[in-house]
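Much of what follows relies on a compact textual record of a protein's fold. A record is reproduced here so that you can trace the correspondence yourselves:

. . .
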Amino acid sequence: MRRRLLLSTLAVAVVAILLLGIPLAYAAHKLVYEEAGRSLDREASSIAGSVGYSLEKPQPVTGAVIAREYPGRRVSVTLPDGRTLTAGRRPHGRVLSATATHGAVRVRVSRPVSEVRDAALRLILLIAGLALLGVAVTVGLAMVQARRFMLPLRELAETADRLGSGNARPRPRRYGIPEIDQVAEVLDRSAVRITDLVVAGRQFATDASHQLRTPLTALSMRLEEMIEAADYPDVVREEGEAAVAQAERLVAVVEQLLARARHDPTGGAVPSPIDEVIAQQVEEWRPSFRKAGRDVRITGEQGLVGLTNPEGLSQIVATLLENSLVHGAGAVTIHTKPGAGSVLVEIGDEGPGIPPELEPRIFDRSVSGGHGTGLGLYLARSLAVVDGGQLQLIRSRPAVFRIFLREAAEARLATERVVMGPA
């Protein structure tokens, strides 16, 4: 598309320049010859008048005086007594001449056509040079315009590809092109809807697992009481024991369903070294922070492994770093440490923090402290919840966010095969 845009712009520019340049060159060529003719007419009239005035005085008229006053011209003066005065060199080849009379004085002035042709050629070359400059400027502007159009399209394609893979992070950037900005807004809304659907599905599975586990546990307790209360019934005891075993199997199945609800393949949560994800994001964002005179530091315990989608964690960290770059100040610190049954990643800066009026709603949709879309933190927290984690604001001024990741050991139960059958 970029090549087609450049070629079409270049073609339009060349056609426009040719339509303007060719008539202009023709008119300039004609103008040079006409001006040369008029100049010779003025010179001939001036010489005739001067010679006539000198004869009336009388004053001597010589060819040397005329040649000195009109260099580069061949002048022939016919006096009233029939004598002829000449001045200047005889030109070779074709000449352009003009004749004038003053009483009985007749003057003929000539110059080589080659001089006029050279002057016309220089003017045409000047016009051609300006035309080439115009083409070059047009190509440069076309390249800038093509890049202005292509860059947003590439970024929108990347955003759409991320949506297809389940990683919904909006792009707060807008490009000043109404049509492309409209597409970006639609993609942002789609990202919100996709995240809401994933979170709703995950929440439903979690709630269903909890709702099933409670009555199944109660059923197990009742069956155990039935077995203990029986006097003789060997058959009842045998069936009761089988029912208890079956109920225990149901509880195990629900436990695995609960683990799978927290470890849904939609999120793609796997045991992931968080150091690699953080290092990759720091490397990506550090040039922007350096340009702003700031730095990004990594502290805490290294080698931690959390249960998360690496791409989702990258999006969360990127969102927090971007918010710090736009709204924060000073150095940014990323601190990692183990927690009680979780892995913690804290990201904070030295800025003024979050205004008190925004603090309770900082994770709400469309809430922004600047000119952003207000979707970044909302979707970042949704991505954390999708993988069974959390994103919280633990300090407002200066702002510090904490990402809670599940420990990698929780992946074992989710990956076990669910087996159900008779006791």
Notes: The first strand starts at residue 74 and ends at 78. The first helix runs from residue 2 to 56.
